[in-house]
Design goal:
The complex is a heterodimer of chains A (738) and B (166). By secondary structure, chain A is an alpha+beta fold. Helices cover 28% and strands 23% of the residues of chain A. Helix content of chain B is 30%, strand content 15%. Classes of the chains: A alpha+beta (738), B alpha+beta (166). Bound molecules: FE2/S2 (inorganic) cluster (2 copies).
Chain lengths: 738, 166
């Protein structure tokens, strides 16, 4: 295995034989099962909880409530506004008590016996209503009414830029909320050892942040807490912050002295959520006659749900991340995240920026139409170049966006299709960029964002210890490939240990597309350091012989062989303005999509016939895995475009918290996706690599929207593009071709 | 065959070739029996209500959702799970194709997906791409966009992937 070859993912053998041990596959002697008691009301104070009947049930060991876990927590240190168990429920499904019993059935029965006296309060579901002065206060720990965060930034002279434009398009968009629906439901197991402390096994993308919050909320020294993260059955951002249920199993394990497992039901996963925020977006975008973009004005109202989650960052991303790949001469953003009495929203693949990307790319399409320009050509005329800074001062060290456009244009036969297919069929294009990790960690500190330890022994085996999170995206394969490349060992001689805070050095987690950049660079540094020391004693030509021979010489001469490497982000490249650090990344990936669709004007049904996706990941360390990320991203965007919505009744009740009602795309809804890798290399990435896991989702939705317009002449500005919406937009008759 | 307290029922099954005899309560699902009693945790529970296909196993050769199957209703049945797919330590051709094509990302859907594919190719060894799409429509995958899964099954159906992976 070397960089760039197609050797299979080393984890695949476990996957196909059913040997991957996910959190819920683990059991421990004496293990209890826990169950949460959830609110049936969208907003209600807990007046009293009577647990006597539950505790009287044989097999019940403990019931805990808000009073047992009084410390507020939250992933962002500045907005810690939730409790493991709420004293006031803020959405239907908010947990207020937790029961531990000998088995799951008993726990379910006991949870039903917990008697909660509620004082029902008026609730608010829509962000605009939540911002009104008379609105009920959703979260008392919020600093300003029902506002999580509000951001106003301006770059360049927007009014002058728009006044000097030959065309200005103004449009409004409504992005429906969606959820991750990783196939594996969340699960956590707490274990207490009075001597060693607390161990929590959990489906978390962020073992390190969970570690910190467990210690803080449970009042344990950090060195008395261990977090183990087994391989995840998908994450997509839905497991990337500490959760109340993780704190509950810790508390219950400490109280009972027994291991305690809590796995969420599928219905509960819909309440736990932290998925894509619904947003209302108003965009104005100008251009000159010859197709130069001028100014962009973006206003976004964000529906946050009941808790902050990553909302502070979301509020910045919702504005900050539309400023590439196309160059703007002026930009103004005004984004506000409001609290509402719904399950909290958070980071879903393409955190905060998929929604404005949809609005922006459809607006670009409108502008191309207004200027009578080909939308690919319009984008080409405005590409930022490598070395340039965006209008909001992000440094773009590398960009393959032009190549991405060329590739999708050619592969889709765009020139013969756009505005030329028969009525009912169309093609659409969209582009995007995304971060490869963030330059600044979530809590301020000057330590590296990722570290790797390598251990080599005389058997020839190399063990990699990394705190990075394996969730199917290929961390183990990526680290293995780097070690094989640098040390010349076979993949079978590499063992990767991840996700255990006792065994692995800190990595901040599997979020914001940071892992290849950060864990990859840390691993590369460790491996090169080790290789240099081996070369010193075993000779510069040591790679020409079996590596184990050189390792033995090195161990004999130098003692135990190991190395550490760490990576920290550049801290000198961002705007000096407040918020300029949010969105600043070591490198940016670029993507272009072309979608081809068929619209049935009788039924309103949209079928995506094919998606062509070209993604600039700098360098594909594992091309097959990169393709998988591109395909999975495009599919996930397609689901949001056509089917998915986290929707609620006026009472605040979720309309369909099941995989069937929610409507995920199946094999029959998903077309063949043509994934194309563009490799230009980035100076900061390991071997030039940038991210591939989130960027390729962004253009899916606007490309499909633009294709629908090409097919039948309608603009769908609200998600999802359901048959009802299509039919409504088609009446009266469209102005499209006939 | 109720046990003395009347709450348990004895069933006989053949699971991956092994004879299994168990006394189970009437509400015990096959998914629970496999995962909790037999520790065959390759059977995954993504929803427990028949929506995702992750718990798919073969019951008398037919792909069936273990989360919706009551153990008492299949007394005498032959069950195949992902743990039984390998023959003499060699991967089943579909398993090998999933590895070679990168069809598994997180792997949570993979066992169910494989068993649906096994049932499909037993019934229709030369299944076309469209037939494969239809045959796997009850199995959700959130990671792959299905592309490489369908590629893998198609490769086996076309006989492209004769070489099992090591
Ligand atoms: S667990 Fe059986 S169908 Fe989802
Ligand atoms: S590989 Fe993760 S759900 Fe299919």
């Amino acid at each position: 295995m070397t960089i760039g070859d197609r050797t299979p993912n080393p984890r695949a053998y476990d996957a196909v034989t059913g040997r991957t041990r996910f959190a819920d596959d683990l059991t421990f002697p004496g293990m209890l099962h826990a169950r949460l008691v959830r609110s049936p009301h969208a907003h209600a104070r807990v007046v009293a909880i009577d647990a006597a009947a539950a505790l009287a049930l044989p097999g019940v060991h403990a019931v805990i409530t808000a009073a047992d876990l009084p410390t507020p927590f939250g992933v962002i240190p500045w907005t810690q506004d939730e409790h493991a168990l709420a004293a006031k429920a803020r959405f239907v499904g908010d947990p207020v008590a937790c029961v531990a019993a000998v088995d799951e059935q008993t726990a379910i029965r006991a949870a039903a016996l917990v008697d909660v006296t509620w004082e029902v309060l008026p609730h608010v579901l829509e962000p605009a209503a939540a911002l009104a002065p008379e609105a009920p206060r959703v979260n008392e720990l919020a600093k300003h009414g029902n506002v999580t965060k509000s951001v106003q930034l301006a770059f360049g002279d927007l009014d002058a830029a728009l006044a000097g434009s030959d065309a200005v398009v103004a449009a409004s968009y409504d992005f429906a909320g969606s959820t991750h629906a990783a196939l594996e439901p969340h699960c956590a197991i707490g274990q207490w050892d009075p001597a060693g402390g607390l161990t929590v096994v959990s489906t978390t993308q962020v073992p390190h942040y969970l570690h910190r919050e467990l210690a803080r909320v449970l009042e344990l020294a950090e060195d008395r807490v261990r977090v183990i993260q087994p391989p995840l059955g998908g994450g997509f951002g839905g497991k990337s912050e500490p959760f109340g249920h993780e704190l509950c199993v810790g508390k219950l394990a400490m109280m009972t002295g027994r291991p305690v497992k809590l796995r969420l039901t599928r219905e509960e996963v819909f309440y736990t959520h932290r998925g894509r925020h619904p947003m209302h977006l108003d965009v104005r975008l100008g251009a000159t006659r010859d197709g130069r973009l001028t100014g962009c004005d973006l206003r976004v109202l964000i529906d946050g749900g009941a808790y902050a989650s990553f909302g502070l960052v979301t509020t910045y991303y919702a504005g900050q991340l539309v400023t590439a790949p196309l160059r703007l001469s002026a930009f103004r953003l005004d984004t506000t995240r409001a609290y509402t009495n719904k399950p909290p929203c958070g980071p879903k693949r393409g955190h905060g920026s998929v929604q404005p990307r949809f609005a922006f790319e459809v607006t670009v399409d409108r502008l191309a139409e207004a200027l009578d320009l080909d939308p690919i050509e319009l984008r080409r005329r405005n590409c930022l170049e490598a070395g340039e800074r965006t209008i909001n001062e992000f440094l773009v060290r590398s960009t393959g966006f032009r190549d991405c456009l060329d590739r999708v244009e050619r592969a889709s036969d765009w020139k013969r299709k756009h505005r030329q297919l028969p009525f009912g069929r169309g093609v659409g294009v969209a582009g995007s960029f995304y971060i490869s990790g963030t330059n600044y960690p979530i809590y301020p500190n000057e330590m590296p964002q990722s570290a790797v330890q390598l251990k080599v022994d005389r058997s020839g085996k190399v063990t990699v210890f990394s705190g990075a999170c394996e969730m199917g995206q290929g961390v183990e394969a990526m680290l293995t490939a780097i070690v094989c490349e640098e040390l010349g060992v076979a993949p079978g001689a590499v063992r990767v240990v991840t996700g255990d805070t006792d065994l692995t050095p800190v990595d901040l987690g599997g979020y914001s597309s940071r892992t290849t950049m950060m864990a990859g660079n840390a691993c590369l540094r460790a491996a090169r350091d080790l290789a240099a020391r081996v070369a010193e004693v075993a000779g510069a030509d040591w790679r020409t012989r079996p590596p184990v021979e050189a390792f033995r010489v090195a161990e004999a001469r130098l003692g135990a062989l190991g190395a550490v490497g760490s990576y920290d982000t550049p801290k000198d490249v961002h705007g000096a303005y407040r918020g300029g650090t949010i969105g600043a990344s070591p490198a940016y990936s670029f993507t272009a999509h072309v979608a081809e669709v068929t619209v049935d004007v009788e039924t309103g049904q949209v079928r995506v016939d094919r998606l062509w996706v070209a993604h600039d990941c700098g360098r594909a360390l594992r091309p097959q895995i990169v393709e998988g990320q591109i395909e999975g991203s495009a599919y996930m965007g397609l689901g949001e475009a056509l089917f998915e919505e986290q929707a609620f009744h006026p009472s605040g009740l979720h309309r369909g918290p099941s995989l069937l009602d929610y409507g995920l795309p199946t094999t029959l809804d998903t077309p063949d996706i043509v994934a194309m890798i563009v490799e230009g290399g980035d100076p900061e990435g390991p071997y030039g690599a940038k991210e591939a896991g989130e960027g390729p989702l962004h253009p899916s939705i606007p490309a499909i929207a633009n294709a629908i317009h090409d097919a039948v002449g309608i603009r769908l500005d609200a998600l999802p593009f359901s048959p009802a919406r299509v039919l409504a937009a088609l009446t009266p008759r469209p102005t499209g071709r006939s | 065959m109720r046990s003395s307290d009347g709450s348990l029922i004895e069933v006989h099954l053949t699971v991956n070739g092994d004879a299994v005899r168990r006394a189970v309560p009437p509400e015990r699902t096959l998914a629970e029996l496999l995962r909790e009693d037999l520790l065959l945790t390759g059977c995954k529970q993504g929803c427990d209500q028949g929506d995702c296909g992750a718990c798919t196993v073969l019951v008398d050769g037919r792909a069936q959702l273990a989360c919706l199957t009551l153990v008492v209703a299949i007394d005498g049945a032959t069950i195949e799970t992902v743990e039984g797919l390998q023959q003499r330590g060699r991967l089943h051709p579909l398993q090998a194709a999933f590895v070679a094509h990168g069809a598994a990302q997180c792997g949570f859907c993979t066992p169910g997906m494989l068993l649906s594919a096994v049932a499909l190719l037993r019934a229709s060894p030369r299944a076309s791409r469209d037939e494969i799409r239809a045959g796997l429509a009850g199995n959700l995958c959130r990671c792959t966009g299905y592309v490489k899964i369908i590629d893998a099954v198609e490769a086996v159906a076309r006989g492209d992937d004769e070489e099992p992976a090591p």
